[in-house]
Amino acid sequence: MEASPAPSARVDQRMFAWLMRGMAARYDRALGDRKRDLLGSLQGTLLEIGPGTGSSLAYLPPELDWIGLEPNVAMHGPLLRTAQRLGRTVDLRRGFAHDTGLPDRSVDAVFSSLVLCSVRDLSQTLQELRRVLRPGGRLIVLEHVAAPGGTWLRRVQGWSRPAWRRLFDNCHPDRETGEAIAAAGFEEIAFETIAGPVPIPVIRPHLLGVARKPLDA
């Protein structure tokens, strides 16, 4: 197992790591079978952005090469312990999704779970993920997204965005992530909208599914 040297975690990073461990457990109880369907047949190399404490590792084929980019160093220890318990070798790096540092066309799939809501620049991040994917590679997402325009929930998401971003590590409750993925040039988009397992209206609905990088890109 490899991890980049990193400074000690700040108090806010440790608090967020604690919060996300509980959130990940809830998602796995509700959506574990769906995650297994999305991740269980992957081959080659998977890049996971913002893997948190490593809840996805249990759903991956044992022979899959896994690279994780996790900027919150408080997540690293729990993730490495999870990998050790599963007997999995991981390449864990302290990095950001908008600037992965990976070569062009170097991974077969990218997985993002509750991450694209909080990246600094969604368009830049999606272009970076498209760059590192091999032609035909898959972008797999499980993300909460904006409610339909004109609904009361969409208005609540907009009103709450400033405070929500400050409290939850730049999370945008009203990001139109599905539309942004299409605009970034992905194709064969097969997304499904679900309520999601967390009974907090401001982070509903959720988007679940796969998009592909074009074969000629």
Keywords:
217 residues; alpha/beta; 8-stranded mixed beta sheet; 5 helices
Rg, nearest Å: 16 Å
The biggest beta sheet, please? 8 strands, mixed
Q: How would you state the average pLDDT, rounded? A: 93
Order of helices and strands: EHEEHEEHEHHEE
Structural class: alpha/beta
Low-confidence parts? 1-6
Within the largest sheet, what's the order of strands?
1-4-3-2-5-6-8-7
In DSSP terms, counting alpha (H) and pi (I) runs of 4 or more, how many helices? Answer: 5
Bulk shape? globular
Strand content: 15-25%
Tell me how many strands there are.
Answer: 8
Please explain how this structure is put together:
It contains 5 helices and 8 strands, in the order E-H-E-E-H-E-E-H-E-H-H-E-E. It has 217 residues and is α/β, with parallel strands linked by helices. The longest helix is centred in the first third of the chain and has 29 residues, at 11-39. The protein starts with a strand and ends in a 5-residue tail after the last strand. The model is unreliable at 1-6 (pLDDT under 50). Helices cover 34% and strands 23% of the residues. 37% of the residues are buried. Strands 1-4-3-2-5-6-8-7 form an 8-stranded mixed sheet. It is globular.
Write the layout of secondary structure elements.
Elements: E1 2-3, H1 11-39, E2 45-49, E3 65-69, H2 76-86, E4 91-93, E5 107-113, H3 122-132, E6 133-144, H4 152-167, H5 177-183, E7 187-194, E8 206-212
Characterize this entry briefly.
The chain has 217 residues and is α/β, with parallel strands linked by helices.
